Structures are given as structure tokens and as C-alpha cells.
């Protein structure tokens, strides 16, 4: 269950990062509220996951999920760069996240 919490926390992290973009510096009420709610849910789930998963592992995986998701959504939603070098760097993050999961218990 802690890994599911961590996965969900990462997904909500993606939501609050993308929400910040849509909130336009927290100047638009609905995206701002959605961003704050997503952040609170993400942090709650992260706290639940860290009851069993080491803090360094949990944090690295949480940020890795967020980095991958926000990068991909940035490419599709905001026309961010999809250069081979950028995608290779994201692939390194994904490799690290998978490696941490494989060497971590619970």
C-alpha cells in the first residue's frame, strides 16, 4: 500500500505543478484552488507513504514521477521542447526511479 500512496502522491504532484501554470501566478481562482487541493492531497499521500518507505527513496521517486509527468504534459500542453537531449535526461530520471524501487524494501 505505501507504494500505491507514493504513486498517487506523484500523480497529484503533477496536478499541482500543471495547475500552477494554469493559475497564472495564482491570479485565476479556479486553477489556484485546484492547485492547492492537489498539493495538499499529494503531501498527505506522501506522508502516508513515508511511514514505510525511507524518506530519501520516497522523495526521489515522488519528484521523479512529478518530473516525468510534468515534462510530458509540458510537451503536449504547452509545446515545451522535446529535444533528444531533454528526453534522454528524463529517461535517466526514470531509470533512477525504477532502480530505487528495485532496491527498496516494502
From TrEMBL:
Alphabetically ordered keywords of this record: Cell membrane, Membrane, Transmembrane, Transmembrane helix, Transport
Domain of life according to the entry: Bacteria
InterPro entries found in the cross-reference section: EmrE-like (IPR037185), Small_drug/metabolite_transptr (IPR000390), Small_multidrug_res (IPR045324)
Stretches that traverse the bilayer: 29-47, 59-78, 84-103
Subcellular localization(s) per the UniProt record: Cell membrane
Any one Gene Ontology BP term: xenobiotic detoxification by transmembrane export across the plasma membrane
One MF annotation (Gene Ontology) recorded for this entry: transmembrane transporter activity
A Pfam family: Multi_Drug_Res
Entries under SUPFAM superfamilies matching the protein: Multidrug resistance efflux transporter EmrE
Mode of membrane association: Multi-pass membrane protein
GO cellular component: plasma membrane
Similarity section: Belongs to the drug/metabolite transporter (DMT) superfamily. Small multidrug resistance (SMR) (TC 2.A.7.1) family. Gdx/SugE subfamily.
Record PANTHER family: GUANIDINIUM EXPORTER (PTHR30561:SF0), SMR FAMILY PROTON-DEPENDENT DRUG EFFLUX TRANSPORTER SUGE (PTHR30561)
Annotated protein name in UniProt: Guanidinium exporter
Source organism of this protein record: Stenotrophomonas tumulicola
Organism lineage: Bacteria, Pseudomonadati, Pseudomonadota, Gammaproteobacteria, Lysobacterales
Gene (UniProt): sugE
